[in-house]
Design the sequence.
């Protein structure tokens, strides 16, 4: 009788297990994308009507790419993520080659050569592909090493490809912000599987010390010809260096301050009417604060926190180490990009070209963000719940 009872109990546990699909993550992605489109139209309508004689120019392009990418995301998320992992090396190599090609065939926009144009119409930013390639390739390498990087050789096996991707991004596309994000993804993935944390604490202390010395040096050499040093000087005193780049920061701060608790109302921003350059790109969070106030900005941050929580849930419940590390890499990417964007807009750190995920204008960005969400949803399908 006891054997029969235990058998029935085991069958009940098996039958109670079911496939899972993280509809909460999907809902968060849809909400952020829709909110981004609303804010993009509100922010860019004036500039689009002046430059392109079409107030929906930026909105229409982003909407088409967003909808198509979302459909592809939902369809491909039904596939097993192990299938995509097979092409991790090829994707990494292609992304590195495209980064190199950007230096020679890329088009310069606003002083930076980061885009490759296809047919003279479609633009493509290889640095965005590099982030996805690193998120997919490094977990594959870690799993090949048994999941624990206990030796310097094993750690170097993962660190070197991440460092190459970061250096290539910085050197060939002059994109420091994306290079830092790739470096952050690499270090944190290694941190997750490394058995000892003391090494990372020491490294973190060294980086902070170097950063402090760099800030001190920049403050004493504000007139340097190095534009990165000037950015630090602008960050320290935006009013004193308004002509060198402080103007944009000050306008963003004016927008944030004028919004108050509940904002001026959707569409009623004054700073977007030519005062704040590139408002629909890196500085869109300041327009959110101006039109929707602290309350609206807080809701957006909560929505990002919910998205990150769902990624954490997937990483914590993934069926294997590969899925857990891929989801962790996506988590790190989104978290770093949101933190850096808000920190730049609020002048907490020097200006860098970091967009707000799902909200800022950028077809390449939204396309590869959806690719990352596709991987996360694919991993969630392999979770078994009781």
Sequence:
């Amino acid at each position: 009788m006891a054997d029969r009872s235990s058998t029935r109990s085991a069958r009940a546990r098996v039958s109670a297990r079911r496939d899972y699909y993280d509809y909460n993550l999907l809902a968060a992605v849809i909400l952020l994308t829709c909110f981004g489109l609303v804010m993009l139209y509100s922010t860019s309508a004036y500039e689009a009507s002046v430059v392109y004689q079409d107030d929906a120019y930026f909105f229409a392009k982003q909407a088409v790419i967003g909808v198509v990418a979302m459909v592809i995301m939902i369809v491909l998320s039904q596939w097993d993520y192990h299938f995509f992992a097979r092409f991790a090396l090829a994707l990494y190599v292609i992304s590195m080659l495209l980064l190199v090609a950007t230096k020679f065939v890329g088009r310069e926009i606003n002083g930076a050569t980061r885009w490759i144009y296809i047919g003279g119409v479609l633009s493509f930013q290889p640095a965005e592909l590099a982030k996805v390639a690193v998120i997919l390739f490094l977990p594959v390498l870690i799993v090949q090493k048994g999941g624990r990087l206990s030796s310097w050789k094993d750690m170097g096996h993962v660190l070197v490809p991440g460092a190459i991707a970061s250096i290539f991004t910085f050197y060939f596309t002059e994109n420091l912000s994306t290079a830092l994000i790739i470096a952050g993804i690499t270090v944190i993935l290694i941190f997750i599987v490394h058995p000892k944390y003391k090494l990372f604490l020491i490294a973190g202390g060294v980086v902070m010390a170097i950063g402090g010395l760099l800030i001190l040096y920049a403050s004493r050499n504000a007139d340097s010809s190095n534009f990165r040093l000037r950015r630090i000087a602008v960050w320290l005193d935006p009013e004193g260096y308004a002509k060198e780049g402080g103007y944009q920061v000050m306008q963003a701060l004016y927008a944030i301050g004028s919004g108050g608790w509940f904002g001026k109302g959707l569409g009623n921003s004054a700073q977007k009417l030519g005062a704040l350059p590139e408002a629909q790109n890196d500085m869109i969070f300041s327009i959110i604060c101006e039109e929707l106030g602290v309350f609206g900005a807080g809701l957006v941050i909560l929505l990002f926190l919910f998205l990150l929580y769902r990624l954490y849930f997937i990483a914590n419940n993934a069926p294997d180490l590969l899925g857990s590390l891929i989801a962790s890499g996506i988590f790190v990417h989104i978290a770093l990009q949101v933190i850096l964007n808000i920190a730049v807009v609020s002048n907490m750190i020097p200006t860098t070209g970091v967009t707000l995920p799902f909200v800022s204008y950028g077809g390449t960005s939204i396309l590869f963000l959806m690719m990352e969400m596709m991987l996360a949803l694919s991993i969630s399908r392999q979770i078994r719940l009781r």
Notes: The mean pLDDT is 84.
